[in-house]
């Protein structure tokens, strides 16, 4: 019990320190901090490898958000300096993962496990889903941030016609490569931290390297799924007054694509959920 209390206090202090730093750098707003601290505590209590995946996603995405801010300011109608993610955005990108880490920690009693169906199919399913979750989140964010800086005009995923930057569902070669890279980084984090926290031996240890291509594919597919949902279920239009692409209809807005069924956070949550499920199935099949 004493060790659990110490771990909780360490998790609380670490999460608070990182949240304050993120708030000062405008990576999140106050509501994002209030939502993010409990999420981080849960991840750290469940396992340091889980916390590492969350941290890598958050810090790399925040860094990329700040790259080319002036250019993004001219393109993105919803641009916020530093990103300033609110509580809705935080939960859209972490709520499913938080449920998964709680379930995994309950099954393993806080012990880090290898991906190995011979040990436990359910644990492998849960951990695989977590990898897919953060690979999708990271890949999609990297794709969006890098794609906006591309010199070429993107193409709508449903028609492959060129559209204005900022259009929901638009893809570019640079963005797709960034998505795969974002997933790869999540996979690499899982493998490297696992060397310190998980007792994997023999063939099981070697098979953990398969997480690298799995996470890369999850990052790419997650971004493509997000783009497909964005192109069809999320509205995009060009505002002739602001001279920017917007996500809401209006008298001065000329429709580009999609319908006003889902907003951006809902699209993210749906693509994450689907990628999580697909990656879980892949990991149970492979491992």
Tell me what the structure shows:
This protein is mainly alpha-helical and 287 residues long. It has one domain. Helices cover 66% and strands 6% of the residues. It has 11 helices and 5 strands, in the order H-H-H-H-H-H-H-E-E-H-H-H-E-E-E-H. The chain has helices at residues 2-24, 30-46, 48-66, 69-75, 87-92, 95-108, 121-147, 173-197, 202-207, 211-233, 264-286; strands spanning 155-156, 170-171, 236-239, 244-246, 253-257. Strand 3 (236-239) and strand 4 (244-246) form a beta hairpin. Helix 1 runs antiparallel to helix 2, helix 2 runs antiparallel to helix 3 and helix 8 (173-197) packs across helix 10. The radius of gyration is 19 Å and the shape is globular. The mean pLDDT is 89.
Q: What structural class is derived from the secondary structure elements?
A: mainly alpha
Instruction: Give the amount of beta strand, in percent.
Output: 5-15%
**Discrete helix count:** 11
Please tell me the overall pLDDT. 89
